[in-house]
Design goal:
Elements lengths: L6 E4 L7 H12 L5 E5 L10 E3 L12 E5 L16 H16 L6 E3 L4 H8 L6 H9 L5 E5 L4 E4 L9 H4 L2 H19 L5 E5 L14 H15 L3 E6 L7 H4 L4 E4 L2 H12 L4 E5 L5 E4 L16 H17 L1
Parallel strand pairs: 1-2, 1-5, 2-4, 3-4, 5-12, 7-10, 8-9, 8-10
Antiparallel strand pairs: 6-7, 6-11, 11-12
C-alpha cells in the first residue's frame, strides 16, 4: 500500500517535450514520489517502460511509467503539433482535475501545452492552463505563482498586452491577488505568518507621481489597509530593487504588477527549477515553468529538472495541506 496518493501528470502537447520529460522524471524519482501520466502511451519515447493502469491507485513506479491511457487519433511527429490531438490534450487536463477532486490523486501537475495548437485544433478559448482550470472549477479568481527555492513571485495581471495592464489593475484584482497569495502561503507552503512585498507599476514606483499615479492612488492605500488589518506587507517598491539577494531575504513572496515584471527575475535566478503554481483552486496544481520546446522535441535533449521540481513541490504542498 502506498504511503501517499499519486500525483496526476497530464500529457501536455504530445509533439513537445512533455512525453520525454515524463520518462526522465520517472527515471529520476522512481518509487520515492509516485505519479501517473494521463496520455496516449504510444506518444511516450520508444523503449520507455510502461505500466498501463485503470485507476490511479494501481500506479507502481517499479513496473515502468504508470500510464492512465488516454487515446488520441492521428500520427505523432515530434516538433509538429497535430490538430487532431488538441481535444485529447484538453480532455486529459479535465480528466486529471476530476481525479484530484474525487480524491483519487494528491495533486495535478500539468505538462506544457501549445496554446495556438489547442486554439487551431479545438477552438480552445482560454489564454492558458491557469484560466482553463479556473473555468473548469468555477473558481472566480485564481493566482499564478512562480516558485523556486530562491524566489516566489506572483503577477497580478497575467496573459494580457502590456498596454492593457493599467486599466486591468483594479483594486478588486490586486486585493484578491494579495489575499489569495497570503492564504496560499499559509495553507500550501506551511508559512504561519507570511511576509509579502508589493512592487510598483511604474519605474521607481512612480517617483512620487512624476512617472505615474498608480502607486499613490491605488497600490499604497491598499497596502496600508492590509497593514492595518495585521498583514505583514510592504510596498509599493521599485521593481528594479526588489529581487537582489538581500531584498529577497525580507519577504516570502513578491507581488508584481504584470507578467514580465514577475517572470524575468525568477527565470534569471533559477530558470531550470522554477515551478508554476496555481493558488486559489480547490486542489493543488503545479507545472514546469517552461514551454513545449518544439524545436528540441523527440531528440532526447529536454531537461527534466523543472518537471521534477513541480512534482516535488506538489508533494510538499499536499503534505502541508494534510
Amino acid at each position: 500500500m502506498q504511503a501517499q496518493l499519486p500525483i496526476a501528470l497530464s500529457c501536455g502537447e504530445p509533439a513537445g517535450i512533455g512525453p520525454e520529460l515524463a520518462q526522465k522524471a520517472w527515471e529520476a524519482l522512481g518509487p520515492s514520489l509516485p505519479f501517473f501520466w494521463i496520455g496516449d502511451p504510444a506518444h511516450l519515447p520508444e523503449g520507455c517502460p510502461v505500466q498501463l493502469i485503470d485507476r490511479p491507485g494501481e500506479a507502481d513506479p517499479a513496473q515502468g511509467v504508470p500510464v492512465l491511457p488516454h487515446a488520441m487519433p492521428g500520427p505523432l511527429t515530434p516538433g509538429t503539433p497535430n490538430p487532431s490531438h488538441a481535444q485529447g490534450v484538453i480532455d486529459a487536463i479535465a480528466r486529471g482535475v476530476a481525479l484530484v477532486r474525487d480524491g483519487a490523486a494528491l495533486a495535478l501537475c500539468t505538462a506544457p501545452i501549445h496554446k495556438k495548437a489547442l486554439q487551431d485544433g479545438a477552438g480552445f478559448g482560454h489564454p492558458g492552463h491557469t484560466e482553463y482550470l479556473a473555468a473548469l472549477t468555477g473558481t472566480p479568481r485564481v493566482v499564478m505563482m512562480l516558485a523556486s527555492d530562491q524566489l516566489r513571485v506572483v503577477p497580478a495581471t497575467i496573459h494580457i498586452p502590456l498596454a492593457e495592464v493599467p486599466a486591468a489593475l483594479t483594486r478588486a484584482l490586486l486585493l484578491d491577488t494579495i489575499r489569495i497569495t497570503h492564504a496560499g502561503l499559509i495553507r500550501d507552503f506551511g508559512i504561519a505568518a507570511p511576509r509579502l512585498a508589493v512592487s510598483g507599476l511604474n519605474p521607481h514606483a512612480g517617483e512620487g507621481g512624476k512617472m505615474g499615479r498608480e502607486e499613490i492612488d491605488l497600490i499604497a492605500p491598499l497596502v496600508a489597509e492590509l497593514q492595518a488589518e495585521g498583514m505583514d506587507i510592504i510596498g509599493p517598491l521599485p521593481a528594479d530593487t526588489m529581487f537582489h539577494a538581500a531584498a529577497r531575504a525580507r519577504y516570502d513572496a513578491a507581488i508584481a504588477m504584470y507578467h514580465d515584471q514577475a517572470l524575468v527575475p525568477i527565470k534569471t535566478l533559477d530558470f531550470d527549477r522554477g515551478v508554476n503554481v496555481t493558488l486559489g483552486l480547490p486542489f493543488i496544481r503545479t507545472s514546469p515553468d517552461h514551454g513545449t520546446a518544439l524545436d528540441i522535441a523527440g531528440r532526447g535533449m529536454a531537461n527534466p529538472t523543472s518537471l521534477i521540481e513541480a512534482l516535488k513541490m506538489a508533494a510538499r504542498m499536499g503534505a502541508a495541506r494534510a
